[in-house]
Predict the 3D structure of the following.
Amino acid sequence: DLLLQFRKKELLFKILVIGDFGVGKTSIIRRYADGTFSSSYKITIGADFAIKSISWDKNTQINIQLWDIAGHERFGSLTGVYYRYAVAAAIVFDLTRPETFRSVEKWLLDLRRKVHLPGSHPVPVVILANKGDITIATLPNEIVNFCEKYNILAWFITSAKDNVHIDEAMLTLINAAVDNH
Ligand code: GTP
Ligand code: MG
């Protein structure tokens, strides 16, 4: 079929957004996928997802499926189901609540226990220190060591509200997923 030769190759990447309740996972996904932000808090029940389609190069279209996992699901038996077929993850904490950084390790270990990529690549992960528009005074000083210890790709101070570093963080994950593909 001649037409097929001109059709773009389509890739689908499932990317997880995890972290404690209220850190801004849903807000980050909304910001990235449809460019909106709401200051009212509507708790996520279970999981949800959004899709963003990116024209990667002239031959490739990438569809990003962003999975929004409810913060309270942390040790729920369902996370394994939600994590299935994921190729990358963003772990989010809230700069206004330092205790949410201490949970990052638990989220990471749970993720690495449950997600195994073909070819035994470690799951690419970025850490997002969110709500940077409110404060960065509470940035944990151990974050650099943490990222080194656990082989984290990168970390970013983000703001879903002001649209800071969200695109950069997602692009880091997409690049890693393309490399692993
Ligand atoms: P769960 O669904 O319960 O796991 O929470 P979540 O991580 O999805 O948090 P959500 O995105 O619902 O955000 C919680 C609250 O924080 C909401 O009131 C958001 O408006 C607010 N929020 C999220 N991101 C930011 C940000 O970057 N800056 C500010 N100022 N507020 C934010
Ligand atoms: Mg949510």
Q: What stands out?
A: The radius of gyration is 16 Å. The pocket of guanosine-5'-triphosphate (ligand 1) is lined by residues 21-27, 38-41, 43-44, 70-71, 130-131, 133-134, 159-161 (CB under 6 Å). The chain has a mean pLDDT of 93.
